[in-house]
Write a structure and sequence with these properties.
With 476 residues, the protein is α/β, with parallel strands linked by helices. Helices cover 38% and strands 16% of the residues. Strands 2-11-10-9-7-3-4 form a 7-stranded mixed sheet, sandwiched between helices. Strands 12-14-17-16 form a 4-stranded antiparallel sheet. Strands 1-15 form a two-stranded parallel sheet.
């Protein structure tokens, strides 16, 4: 048999990495997957007599969604097998009409922007507060949210991210109250927060219990669920369920994976039984080791520090480290962990590395990560090598020259990024992960943003929408 490239590649990765702090939340361990992990082909079915239908459920799939809704306290919950992007796009299209205006967090996921193209929507942005000293986008201001909604009654819907990729949380309950005071629908992209429900005393308030109307979650990110498994919660009477279901039928595959659906339900069952106990133990280790490293001078994000910087809350299952004061970029720190310590993180930017700590991690895994970071810091502190410190920049206030949908279908050409300044971007330019656009179709590319993109590329950050490290698409 010829070499199987994907299987061989996965085997190679597994040989090189001992511990991973990236999604999916099962971390490659069979035990949390239960029966599913032992015999995938047995659970790989299709719609036939006795297996129900995801799009018109009446049997065990309906029962599963009823169970999930009860666990999360929603009005109705839906299994989503096309990832949270599908849940987000379905929700936005269900709550808007072509030409409507929606208010979105500027550092939202690209799926929100894709929804605006599909729905021919107008976007208005609310920018997160940026901390220049620490190179971090912090929370959105709920006062600013109130001001924007007061000044623009044409906004139909609000889309906010909670928690962020870095675990940072705003006052979601207050945000819901403000949005509803103005008579709007609130969608929370809680892709990174499906675990919050299972350890409420030590973690931020779950979005689905905050008063938000719709909450989209990636169960595969922080629960022991297979990749692509997600859940969409409708939490209030303000949402038209028929519209939500119509959009889900339109955007989800007509051949949904029973393996994925079983994995979602199994993950939630496992979390109900083991989640709180295991999360509590891991959070205690995280907090203890974080304090130790911060006392050494290492920048590890934690709740008290962030609250001192004006952040409302922090998800203590997010391991976020920086050694930028030593001139070490996040990408370089990630490489050291990967190739010298066999530890793989979720992603890195110019300053920070980010890892997920889930209920399936063992305390010794967390200790090994923190021991490695401590050792790297001590070693690098002694080096006499002179390094430049790179600063993370806030999201650019770029000018929208044309509607995204119009530009999406316009003729374009590919040119050198240095020649693109002053021209209209024809596609997204997105550091990935986390999938947050720096430039959207229809926006002008300015010099500062072009230079920042080049710095990212130089430091090993993958930027979608840039080809051969220097080419971008612009409108003809």
């Amino acid at each position: 048999m010829k070499k199987q490239n994907i299987i061989s590649g996965i085997h190679q990765y597994r040989r090189e990495v001992d511990i991973n702090f990236h999604m999916p939340g099962h971390k490659g361990k069979n035990e949390p997957l239960g029966e599913i992990g032992k015999n995938l082909s047995f659970y790989d079915l299709t719609e036939t007599i006795g297996t129900d239908d995801l799009h018109y459920p009446t049997g065990f799939l309906k029962d599963a969604m009823t169970y999930i809704s009860k666990v999360y306290g929603s009005k109705k919950s839906y299994l989503v097998v096309n990832g949270t992007s599908c849940g987000i796009i379905s929700s936005i299209l269900a709550c808007t009409k072509p030409g409507d205006k929606i208010l979105v967090q500027r550092d939202c996921h690209k799926s929100v922007y894709n929804a605006s193209i599909l729905g021919d929507l107008e976007l208005q942005y609310i920018y997160p507060e940026f901390n220049k000293k620490h190179g971090l986008n912090l929370s959105i201001s709920t006062d600013k949210l109130d001001q924007v909604l007061s000044s623009d009654p044409d906004i139909k819907m609000v889309v906010l991210t909670y928690p962020t990729f870095y675990g940072i949380c705003f006052d979601v309950k207050k945000a819901a109250e403000i949005v509803h005071k103005h008579g709007k629908i609130l969608l929370i992209d809680e892709a990174h927060g499906s675990h919050l429900q299972f350890c409420k005393d030590l973690l931020p308030l779950p979005g689905e219990n905050s008063g938000a109307d719709i909450v989209a979650q990636s169960t595969h990110k922080t629960l022991p669920c297979l990749t692509q498994g997600s859940v969409l919660h409708v939490c209030t009477e303000r949402v038209n369920l028929n519209r939500i279901e119509t959009m889900l039928r339109m955007l989800q595959t007509t051949s949904p994976s029973y393996v994925l659906m079983a994995s979602i339900e199994n993950a939630i069952h496992w979390m109900e039984e083991w989640g709180k106990e295991r999360l509590k133990k891991n959070i205690e280790v995280f907090n203890e080791r974080t304090l130790e490293l911060r006392n050494m001078g290492i920048n590890v994000l934690e709740q008290n520090f962030l609250k001192g910087e004006g952040v409302f809350d922090f998800d203590a299952t997010r391991a976020v480290f920086s050694m930028s004061e030593l001139g070490i970029t996040g990408t370089r720190l990630q490489e050291i962990l990967r190739y010298e310590y066999r530890i793989q993180m979720e992603f890195a930017d110019l300053q920070y590395i980010v890892g997920y700590i889930t209920a399936t991690d063992e305390p010794e895994d967390i200790h090994r990560l923190f021991d490695a970071v401590r050792e790297i810091y001590i070693k690098e502190s002694k080096t006499k090598e002179k390094r430049d410190t790179i600063q993370i920049e806030p999201f650019p206030f770029v000018k929208q020259e044309a509607k995204m949908k119009q530009v999406f279908y316009a003729e374009n050409t590919i040119i050198d990024i240095d020649e693109s300044i002053g021209k209209i971007a024809a596609e997204f330019i997105i550091p990935y992960p986390p999938g947050i656009p720096l430039i959207c179709p229809g926006e002008l590319i300015d010099k500062n943003t072009a230079e920042y993109i080049k710095i990212m590329l130089k430091n090993g950050i993958n930027v979608n929408g840039v080809y051969n490290n220097n080419l971008v698409r612009v409108v003809k």
